[in-house]
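Support request from a user on the community tier.

User writes: "When I paste my structure tokens into the form, the page sometimes reloads and wipes my input. The last time it worked, I copied everything first. Here is what I submitted, just in case something in the input itself triggers the reload:"
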């Protein structure tokens, strides 16, 4: 029996690639039963996105498709369309899709028609751009066009993308929260809803304080590298053996930093006394700080700063970060038994509930792995519908 706060929710996942599958994986992590409809014969595109591959499965696909059952269908065929229709009408609480507008209608699976047939159904769509714009959305293009790349990278370097497909992940999280809100409202009204989220709007919303700064000043935001536009010192600084991420968020922390560095007088320097002063004299400040920081190691400074409540930390690689989480006893990585890979380690999603944990319920499926079970479920739904009609 599934646990988690969404243990009684059924999700029909017609989506592929990243944004929407990330949201449906999260619904599964929260306890929902997720059926993933894949395109026959190749399945979700991300199954081919590699290397790396392990036992024929791409790491990319594995990262966003656990907690799901898989069946591969050809949705141009009426018999396979009927499978989806029956699941949507008689089983699903939520249907998620990211097809180009008009595609589902051509297959007789239009979302409005499905909601008429199942008034409690919540349908959710991911688009590249807000309707009626039907252009496909790609993370790299969205990062470029939204202005995100213009504020990412070294001040004198080229615009840069974020190292993770952040527009997709952000969109998936907005989709998840929209679906959960629709489920909550359904509890009050008894009726489903339609949720639409686009990569473009999600990325624009994610600009938050940077976009707001432009809206109130009219000044174009610029790249600051690892520095913060409104805080100083809040960036990477050079030490004797590498880099230290230094995050001073207020004047009290800056005063503590100055004491640790043996330069308490800097806290009273007119150039550095308040955060606006420090932002205005950022280059002079960083030059002064690094003249002291280069005399000791990153670890030495980090421990001394932690002792007085100044946020700081090393710049780690991915392997180093995972090793640190393990050393601290954080249950960040869990193992699942995959049908072809064997033991598969994955990073869990970050929820912790007082009344029972959310968690990984099943490994990412191989393509069409659950065909027999899902078709058996569909036959049960059809028999039940016949019985209801005869009553």
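"...and here is what came back when it finally went through:"
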């Amino acid at each position: 029996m599934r646990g988690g706060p969404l243990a009684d929710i059924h999700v029909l996942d017609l989506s592929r690639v990243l944004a929407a599958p990330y949201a449906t994986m999260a619904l599964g992590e929260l306890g929902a039963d997720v059926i993933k409809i894949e395109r026959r014969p190749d399945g979700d595109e991300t199954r081919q996105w590699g290397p790396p591959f392990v036992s024929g499965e791409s790491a990319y696909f594995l990262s966003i498709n656990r907690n799901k059952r898989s069946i591969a269908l050809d949705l141009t065929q009426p018999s396979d369309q009927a499978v989806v229709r029956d699941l949507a009408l008689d089983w699903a609480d939520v249907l998620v899709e990211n097809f180009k507008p008009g595609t589902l209608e051509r297959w007789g699976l239009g979302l409005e028609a499905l909601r008429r047939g199942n008034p409690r159904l919540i349908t959710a769509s991911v688009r590249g751009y807000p309707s009626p714009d039907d252009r496909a959305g790609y993370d790299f293009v969205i990062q470029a066009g939204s202005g995100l790349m213009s504020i990412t990278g070294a001040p004198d370097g080229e615009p840069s993308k974020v190292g993770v497909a952040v527009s997709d992940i952000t969109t998936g999280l907005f989709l998840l929260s929209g679906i959960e809100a629709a489920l909550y409202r359904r509890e009050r009204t008894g009726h489903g809803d339609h949720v639409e989220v686009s990569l473009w709007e999600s990325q624009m919303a994610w600009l938050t304080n940077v976009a707001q700064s432009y809206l109130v000043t009219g000044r174009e935001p610029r790249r600051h590298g690892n520095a913060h536009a409104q805080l100083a010192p809040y960036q990477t600084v050079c030490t004797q053996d590498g880099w230290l991420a230094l995050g001073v968020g207020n004047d009290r922390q800056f005063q503590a930093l100055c004491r640790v560095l043996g330069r308490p007088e800097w806290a009273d320097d007119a150039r550095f006394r308040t955060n606006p002063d420090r932002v205005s004299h950022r280059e002079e400040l960083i030059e002064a700080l690094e003249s002291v920081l280069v005399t000791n190691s990153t670890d030495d400074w980090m421990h001394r700063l932690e002792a007085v409540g100044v946020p700081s930390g090393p710049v780690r690689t991915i392997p180093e970060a995972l090793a640190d989480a393990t050393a601290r006893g954080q249950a960040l990585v869990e193992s699942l038994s995959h049908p072809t890979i064997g033991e598969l380690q994955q990073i869990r999603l970050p929820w912790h509930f007082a009344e029972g944990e959310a968690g990984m319920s099943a490994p990412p499926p191989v393509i069409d792995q659950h065909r027999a079970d899902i078709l058996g479920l569909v036959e049960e739904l059809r028999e039940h519908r016949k019985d209801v009609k005869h009553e």
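Agent notes: The reload is a front-end session timeout and is unrelated to the input. The chain has two domains: 10-206+352-390, 234-314. The mean pLDDT is 95. Escalated to web team.
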